[in-house]
Design goal:
DHBP synthase; 4-stranded parallel β-sheet; alpha/beta; 28% helix; Rossmann fold; 8-stranded mixed β-sheet; globular; 2 domains
């Protein structure tokens, strides 16, 4: 059920249920972070593997940092610059956060969302909410309440209406668990903006533990229709229905359906439209989708990250990764 009733959402959360709610990036599926049984329902309703940690959302910086065992100066500077907003900081957790939230890791991923409905919900429930995206695991993230309803239906008792998400791509995730900050996931805040605040950031560790951050499986953010990069794709064959996800207006023809992310070449606009455009193409019973990558800078890094994961072959079985040595 789609509703604007925050009081009803609070009642459900306090009763140990899950609720979908909007953020400025995508819609989240939330449960009170300290209620392990309620958090378990998130994994059940999404079909999400338990080795994939969740982001914990708090109403204010103070409330977020109260969930940390150690708040660094760099964390304070990033919070001052970008919270409320679409950046997630990975920091040492306090013991009272259940292991199911953090996949048994000693760290917790924290964010203070800027969306007014998310803020109103967090203030009203007076507790942090663990929340991944409100969709079936590995599929295209939802940027409207209707997307959540299409994906999860009766699995979610309440979906808070908040309109289309303004950012459209998930938060940027930065780990502050080591001496030097490390990028775990590119997202709605460009790497250049973050480096301007704290200096150079280490790149993701290709051989590292994928459990450190959500969205790190090779196949993720994927439509049901097979997808491939435009640079690797053959032209549409005779009788073949092929969709094109274009960054700007394409100069090529022969596609059964075309979605343009930004006429003006604005990467923020492209990021905002990305998941909704993928969903529209996915609904048209195409044989395949080809996608045009963005320039590899700014928000283009986040867009390309989602596209490259969406192009990977689907995983038929998910197994917990081995523990790091």
């Amino acid at each position: 059920m789609i509703s604007s009733n925050i009081e009803e959402a609070v009642i459900l959360l306090n009763d140990g249920e899950v609720v979908a709610f909007p953020t400025e990036t995508v819609y989240g599926l939330g449960a009170i972070a300290f209620n392990a049984n309620a958090v378990a329902k998130i994994f059940e309703r999404k079909g999400r593997p338990h080795f994939d940690p969740l982001i914990v959302h708090a109403a204010t910086t103070d409330r977020a940092f109260a969930l940390c065992a150690n708040v660094t100066k760099i964390a304070e500077r990033l919070a001052e610059a970008f919270w409320p907003g679409p950046i997630t900081l990975v920091l040492p957790k306090i013991e009272s956060i259940p292991d199911i939230v953090t996949a048994g890791l000693p760290s917790v991923a924290l964010r203070v969302p800027a969306h007014p409905v998310a803020q109103a919900l967090l203030m009203a429930v007076n507790a942090p909410l663990a929340a991944p995206s409100a969709n079936r695991f590995g599929k295209v993230s939802p940027t409207t309440a209707e997307h959540v309803l299409q994906d999860l239906g009766s699995r979610v008792p309440l979906i808070l209406e908040g309109g289309p998400c303004q950012r459209g791509v998930e938060s940027t995730i930065i780990s502050l668990m080591d001496e030097h900050p490390r990028l775990l996931r590119p997202g709605s805040i460009a790497l250049e903006e973050i480096c301007a605040i704290i200096g150079p950031i280490q790149a993701p560790d290709a051989n590292g533990d994928i459990r450190l951050s959500p969205g790190q499986l090779k196949s993720h953010y994927a439509p049901s229709t097979p997808m491939q990069p435009l640079s690797d794709a053959l032209p549409p064959g005779k009788g073949e229905r092929v969709g094109l996800l274009a960054l700007t207006s394409p100069s090529i023809a022969g596609y059964a359906a075309i979605e343009v992310l930004t006429e003006a070449g604005d990467l923020r606009e492209a990021a905002t439209h990305l998941f909704a455009a993928l969903r529209r193409l996915d609904a048209q019973q195409l044989d395949r989708i080809v996608c045009e990558y963005a320039p590899a800078h700014g928000l283009g890094l986040a867009i390309n990250d989602r596209l490259s994961r969406g192009c990977q072959p689907k995983q038929t079985e998910l197994r917990e990764p081995p523990a790091p040595k």
